[in-house]
Q: What sequence folds into this?
């Protein structure tokens, strides 16, 4: 019998208290699956790319605990994070006679996690689910905190629910097969935690970026753990985003506009957030909140992580139209997460002219 996972972070919210297990070899560790709700059926929601790599191992690990374990594969890609894919999950669950006790396992990146979570929140008004994130981005962000959603052609993550998992199992071994570009996308969400909450962590990321990029296990384990600790702390204080939780959206108002504007899947979510953080930091400097030096420091780190720092060419009116669909907007007014100081973030409005000036300074020519 394997030892208990060496590292766990607890998330505690009014709607659920659960552990994020962080270690290598967790897929095959009995401890990772001990103590979960048991049922006649478990369903693994995944995609063909991840299924080939890890589907059989997870199915084998779950087999002793459930009467039947099946897998449903959704098409791979942000452009498929929609109703049509969600229906595939419901089709599978109903065709197999799944009931309210059935446990869903989200095996994959944030796209699979967000969709499996939304399916779990809504199937028979809610069934238990477990997040098994296999991308760096999903391990440090999307699998934690219970935000689930699908995209709409007019806006990112527009239809969804807050629904907490039973557990998050981050097997660091799965990061070995992640393509370079996806690893960098995950680094974007790790970097995010520095300027919004923890400048000591930001200093650490700057010092350890080469190690993170070459997938040094100790560096990755520390980054995943610290990111999860910060996210758990924020979500524990504000599960449903009445205030504080919005800071986790640093860079996302610009980033979501990039993703929707260019078409889902053109830029990866982490890439769009990376560039969005450059714009949000520049906006903070423009509003007199942080120094231009800090914006440059953040930009250098993002660029060194292999991420884009120049915004794509889009018409100014289009930028504003896209950002008005953001979930933080109120009464048609766009609200941004800005830095009040390095390590401290807040929600603010900004004049359209100021926002467009920042975009044009940091953007490609239309
Ligand atoms: P993704 O889910 O599309 O995964 C990226 C790619 O990596 C996919 O092609 C996938 O098949 C592949 N992949 C996954 N694991 C792999 C592995 N171990 N080895 C090889 N290939 C692997 O993208 P993502 O970056 O993980 O997630 C982005 C999504 O997460 C976006 O839709 C975003 O909106 C969402 N998100 C949600 C939250 C939240 O709080 N719910 C937070 C951040 C992001
Ligand atoms: N990724 C933003 C949030 O979880 O709130």
A:
């Amino acid at each position: 019998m394997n030892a208990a996972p060496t590292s766990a972070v607890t998330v505690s919210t009014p709607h659920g208290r659960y552990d994020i297990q962080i270690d290598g070899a967790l897929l095959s560790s009995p401890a990772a699956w001990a103590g979960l709700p048991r049922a006649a059926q478990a369903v693994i929601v995944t995609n063909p790319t991840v299924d080939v790599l890890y589907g059989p191992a997870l199915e084998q690990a779950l087999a002793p605990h459930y009467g039947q374990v099946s897998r449903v594969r959704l098409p791979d890609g942000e452009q498929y994070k929609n109703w049509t894919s969600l229906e595939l999950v419901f089709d599978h669950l109903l065709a197999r006679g799944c009931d309210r006790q059935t446990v869903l396992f989200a095996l994959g990146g944030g796209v699979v996690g967000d969709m499996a979570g939304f399916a779990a929140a809504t199937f028979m008004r809610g069934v238990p689910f477990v997040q098994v994130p296999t991308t760096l981005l999903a391990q440090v962000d999307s699998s934690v905190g219970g935000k689930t959603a699908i995209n709409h052609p007019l806006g990112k993550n527009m239809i969804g629910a807050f629904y907490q998992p039973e557990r998050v199992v981050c097997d660091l071994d799965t990061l070995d097969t992640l393509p370079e570009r996806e690893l960098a996308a995950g680094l974007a969400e790790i970097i995010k935690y520095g300027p919004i909450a923890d400048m000591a962590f930001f200093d650490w990321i700057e010092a350890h970026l080469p190690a993170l990029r070459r997938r040094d296990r100790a560096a990755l384990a520390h980054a995943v753990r610290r990111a999860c600790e910060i996210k758990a702390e924020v979500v524990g204080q504000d599960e449903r985003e009445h205030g504080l939780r919005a800071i986790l959206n640093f860079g996302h108002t610009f980033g979501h506009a990039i993703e929707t504007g260019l078409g889902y899947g053109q830029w990866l979510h982490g890439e769009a957030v990376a560039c969005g953080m450059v714009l949000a930091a520049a906006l903070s400097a423009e509003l007199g909140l942080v120094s231009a030096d800090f914006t440059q420091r953040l930009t250098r780190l993002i660029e060194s992580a292999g991420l884009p720092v120049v915004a794509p060419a889009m018409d100014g009116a289009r930028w504003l139209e896209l950002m008005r669909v953001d979930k933080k907007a109120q009464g048609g007014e766009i609200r941004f997460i800005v830095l009040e100081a390095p390590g401290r973030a807040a929600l603010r409005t900004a004049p359209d002219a100021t926002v467009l000036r920042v975009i044009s300074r940091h953007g490609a020519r239309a």
